[in-house]
Specification:
Layout (H helix, E strand, L loop, with lengths): L1 H4 L11 H16 L25 H7 L4 H4 L8 E7 L5 E2 L6 H15 L12 E6 L1 H7 L6 H11 L2 E2 H10 L13 H11 L3 E4 L10 E5 L7 E5 L8 E13 L6 H6 L8
Parallel strand pairs: 3-7
Antiparallel strand pairs: 1-8, 2-8, 3-8, 4-6, 5-6
């Protein structure tokens, strides 16, 4: 359906004509159907993105040998579906300059553990994320991670955050209530984080400049909470992690005469 409608999964995809049309439609839906108005019940001082739209590059997934996100969500190959997700920030646009699959995975894990946390990691322990990557990045990763499940497992194991940092953010920046000056000291709260969030002594990440071989860390990812999409310019090596809310994939039920309706319309060709 995306190909029929000319929705782009290539260069400049979020600015392509059909992609932008859907983005504008979503903005109108939030106001006119959901009653979600600025100044009334629509928040967003800094933390919300404008609606936007992109398409998964199914052909790139085939070349890499990974299942598409829609297939991982239970759809059959060729079925039309849509995934709705929310994100609170664009995240960090990273262009890895290595062909080492493990190093690329570690860079992604660093982004997730250090910079890709929802609200600095001051809220709940685990955050839903959407990870976007172009085919060149996926093509490197496949050498060590033949499936997205194996990549996800590696990221879960490597994106652990020092318990001290997690406790610091949660103690001083948790919007749920002030702990500073309360009945529990920061050190006591650090112990609570370690006990309640599965803190363990793990190997020091390769990006930390320290002589310590181990650190007390807590997990930042859990299985099934991250959507991985291969999309974007096939001539660029880009990967981006966007923390935010959840996501939901819905099968699109097309009318029986859909193809005939499309033949009567003219849409831009999707790259």
């Amino acid at each position: 359906m995306a190909r029929q409608l000319g929705i782009s999964c290539g260069q400049g995809e979020i600015n392509a004509q059909a992609n932008v049309a859907l983005s504008r439609f979503l903005s109108q839906v939030l106001m006119n159907l959901a009653g979600y108005y600025v100044g009334q019940n629509r928040m967003g001082t800094f933390g919300y993105l404008q609606p936007w739209c992109l398409v998964e590059d199914e052909e790139a997934c085939r070349r890499v040998g990974w299942k598409t996100w829609s297939e991982r969500e239970g759809m059959e190959q060729g079925e039309s579906c849509v995934t709705l997700a929310s994100a609170l920030m664009w995240g960090n646009n990273m262009a890895p300059s290595t062909m080492d699959a493990e190093r690329v995975m570690q860079l992604m894990a660093w982004d997730i553990a250090e910079r890709g946390q929802f609200a600095l990691g001051s809220g709940k322990q685990f955050t839903n994320r959407v990870v976007l990557m172009t085919e060149p990045v996926a093509d490197i990763l496949k050498n060590s991670y033949p499936t997205l499940d194996s990549l996800e497992d590696a990221l879960i194991a490597n994106s652990r955050r020092p318990a001290y940092e997690r406790a610091f953010a949660n103690y001083y920046a948790n919007a749920g209530g002030r702990k500073d000056g309360g009945k529990h000291s920061f050190r006591q709260y650090l112990g609570h984080i370690v006990r309640s969030e599965g803190g363990e002594k793990t190997s020091t990440p390769p990006w930390r400049d320290t002589d310590a071989e181990t650190l007390a860390t807590v997990a930042t990812m859990q299985k099934g909470s991250t959507a991985f999409l291969v999309t974007g310019d096939v001539s660029r090596n880009k990967v981006q992690t966007m923390p935010g809310g959840g996501f939901s994939t819905v099968r699109i039920e097309l009318p029986a005469d859909w193809d005939a309706l499309m033949e009567a319309c003219t849409f831009p060709t999707s790259p």
